[in-house]
Amino acid sequence: MSNIDLLPALLIVAPILAATLPIALGLRYERTGWSVAAITSTGLFAAALALASVVYTSGEVIHTLGGYPRTYGIQLVADEFSTLIALLITSVAVGVLAYTRRGGPRGNTFYTAYLLLVGGLLGISLTGDVFNLFVFLEITSLATYALVASGDGPESAVAALKYLILGTVAASMYLIGVAFVFMATGTLNMVELSIAIPAAERPVLIQTGFAFIVVGFAVKVAQWPLHTWQPSAYQQAPDGVTPLIAALVSTASAYAFGRLIVTVFEVDYLAAMPNAAAIVLTIGCVSVLAGTVLAVIQTEVKRMLAYSSVSQFGLVIAAYGVVIAGNSETALTGAVIHLVGHGLLKTGLFLGAALVAASYGARTVDEYAGLATDRPIMAGLMAILLFSLVGIPPSVGFVGKWYIALGAVESQLWPVAAVIFLSTMLTLAYAARLLEKMYFTPATVVERPHARGPVATDGGDADRDDASTLDSEVETDDGSAAAALRGADARNPVSVGMIAIVVVVALGAVALGFAGGAIAELLEPFLTEVIN
Amino acid sequence: MIELLASRYTYVLMFVLLGIGLYMVIASQNLVKKLIGVSLFQTSIFLFFVSMAYVEGGSAPIVPPESDPGELLVASPLPQVIVLTAIVVGIALTAVGLALVIRIYSEYGTLREDTLREVRADE
């Protein structure tokens, strides 16, 4: 076993072990959480880069835990698809962590939940075993519930409980699916399953299993009408947490679903399964339309972006449907690029929304009036990211949609192409509403009831340090009390670094748009392996 | 039908429990009862795994050192290991859920979902 084989295991174990440190060290020393989290996530990013360089040059890296054979042992697999997701997870984690240094939330418990979340997400992307996928889904979910509940005010606890109940039922549905598939085949390893499933004696068990798995992931990925947990969870989570969970949690679930479709059940088998393609396609297309329509009617910016996630993930699921129905390599490329691109865009947009809320005090679409004259850089960044979300070239949002639409057309699935076109128009509708407010509506003080309210509290200032001690003790209640302590100094809490992070994300979104072809090339070995 | 009940009664029982659990999650207005429903739902899946692993006349999957392992008839150990892990996950989830319920109760003074909706609408 060479050293590179250890990297997949380290990527999962290191953050989970490090998650214990902020709390343990916090007993003795104050404010160690950020350093622990920063060192760990930078290390993870470096490790993911090293892993990627190996995977993209010489093929997949497999770590067999404990040396047990894969029929009953556990494997961690890093191939072209999973490494791309691992890179997205670690880079977004580093970016968001840098933002929270000044932007909040803080406190040792926050960093513990943060590291646990990163560990769970990396586990989802690297595991090669369907049951461990369930365990990592639940680790991720547990950390997410805790992070959502740490928002200001009691509303976040209600949102987190709603998320917990729906999320647990969803993960349990997935577990039933695994149980049925296990019953039919007797193995849990993804590669073994792909061999055993076509040979299974009772295909009805496999079909039932797939049905449960589809329902489970439809909740986890927030597909209409099972998306109801998602807007309130995103809205009530602290501003520094929303980018992380919006960009990564559902993305990792969508990745896992795609992995199950292409590696475990395999496209050919699903194409022969009655109605499988039609069901997945319908879920995706309906979510695309319902999500955009719901986004258009929202007044809160964070809520609007949350509904936009419903539609963007609908696009990914629809692409999976195209992959099943049409055996389309192009649509799979599109789904992968869109997953990564959307993750990056949502990080940028939610970070931007957090910046605007912190400095301009604006939370609803109407309150964004006059942002361009008052805060030109922020407005410009939001505009770039919104245009990318709509899919205006050259941006990553365009490349993903282009490949998916191309795949749909190649497979003669014209309704899907029409849905993608229609959703682009509707995305433009809600993006344009925000752009119009930012650039063409003059600001009036009366219109911004959120300004200087409790929303502008999480600022970093010189006297922040005293307050952060307090935060770590009453972390869940980090609200008006701490703000009162900090007083007027919290008025302009946005540092250059926080803006710089959003600039990097926005530039990344545009740069990835040019790199679309390169990503497709990197994925080539994986695509030819799973699609014949 | 009778034959199904006689030969596959554990699976039938498991799906009845599953239904009860899901019904509690959806229909009960009490947040604690909802969480009990979630637990029941999960537990029924664990029972499904365990009954799946049962082998007619098989013993526990502990291999004694003296006998020839090839001739032993044992229950499948893999689902049992899986269930152990899943139970731990389930406990963690229930704990987090109950902690959130405590927070909600201390803030709003109610555990009922309909009252909670009214209180939140008033604010």
UniProtKB/TrEMBL annotation, chain A:
<protein>
    <submittedName>
        <fullName>Monovalent cation/H+ antiporter subunit D family protein</fullName>
    </submittedName>
</protein>
<feature type="transmembrane region" description="Helical">
    <location>
        <begin position="304"/>
        <end position="323"/>
    </location>
</feature>
<dbReference type="InterPro" id="IPR050586">
    <property type="entry name" value="CPA3_Na-H_Antiporter_D"/>
</dbReference>
<feature type="transmembrane region" description="Helical">
    <location>
        <begin position="335"/>
        <end position="358"/>
    </location>
</feature>
<feature type="transmembrane region" description="Helical">
    <location>
        <begin position="6"/>
        <end position="27"/>
    </location>
</feature>
<dbReference type="GO" id="GO:0008137">
    <property type="term" value="F:NADH dehydrogenase (ubiquinone) activity"/>
</dbReference>
<feature type="domain" description="NADH:quinone oxidoreductase/Mrp antiporter transmembrane">
    <location>
        <begin position="128"/>
        <end position="427"/>
    </location>
</feature>
<dbReference type="InterPro" id="IPR003918">
    <property type="entry name" value="NADH_UbQ_OxRdtase"/>
</dbReference>
<feature type="transmembrane region" description="Helical">
    <location>
        <begin position="379"/>
        <end position="400"/>
    </location>
</feature>
<feature type="transmembrane region" description="Helical">
    <location>
        <begin position="110"/>
        <end position="127"/>
    </location>
</feature>
<feature type="transmembrane region" description="Helical">
    <location>
        <begin position="34"/>
        <end position="56"/>
    </location>
</feature>
<keyword id="KW-1133">Transmembrane helix</keyword>
<feature type="transmembrane region" description="Helical">
    <location>
        <begin position="133"/>
        <end position="151"/>
    </location>
</feature>
<feature type="transmembrane region" description="Helical">
    <location>
        <begin position="76"/>
        <end position="98"/>
    </location>
</feature>
<keyword id="KW-0812">Transmembrane</keyword>
<feature type="transmembrane region" description="Helical">
    <location>
        <begin position="163"/>
        <end position="184"/>
    </location>
</feature>
<feature type="transmembrane region" description="Helical">
    <location>
        <begin position="243"/>
        <end position="265"/>
    </location>
</feature>
<feature type="transmembrane region" description="Helical">
    <location>
        <begin position="496"/>
        <end position="520"/>
    </location>
</feature>
<feature type="region of interest" description="Disordered">
    <location>
        <begin position="451"/>
        <end position="478"/>
    </location>
</feature>
<dbReference type="GO" id="GO:0042773">
    <property type="term" value="P:ATP synthesis coupled electron transport"/>
</dbReference>
<feature type="transmembrane region" description="Helical">
    <location>
        <begin position="412"/>
        <end position="432"/>
    </location>
</feature>
<keyword id="KW-0614">Plasmid</keyword>
TrEMBL record, chain B:
<keyword id="KW-0614">Plasmid</keyword>
<keyword id="KW-0472">Membrane</keyword>
<dbReference type="InterPro" id="IPR050601">
    <property type="entry name" value="CPA3_antiporter_subunitC"/>
</dbReference>
<feature type="transmembrane region" description="Helical">
    <location>
        <begin position="6"/>
        <end position="26"/>
    </location>
</feature>
<dbReference type="Pfam" id="PF00420">
    <property type="entry name" value="Oxidored_q2"/>
</dbReference>
<protein>
    <submittedName>
        <fullName>Cation:proton antiporter</fullName>
    </submittedName>
</protein>
<feature type="transmembrane region" description="Helical">
    <location>
        <begin position="35"/>
        <end position="55"/>
    </location>
</feature>
<keyword id="KW-0812">Transmembrane</keyword>
<feature type="transmembrane region" description="Helical">
    <location>
        <begin position="81"/>
        <end position="102"/>
    </location>
</feature>
<dbReference type="GO" id="GO:0016020">
    <property type="term" value="C:membrane"/>
</dbReference>
<keyword id="KW-1133">Transmembrane helix</keyword>
<dbReference type="InterPro" id="IPR039428">
    <property type="entry name" value="NUOK/Mnh_C1-like"/>
</dbReference>
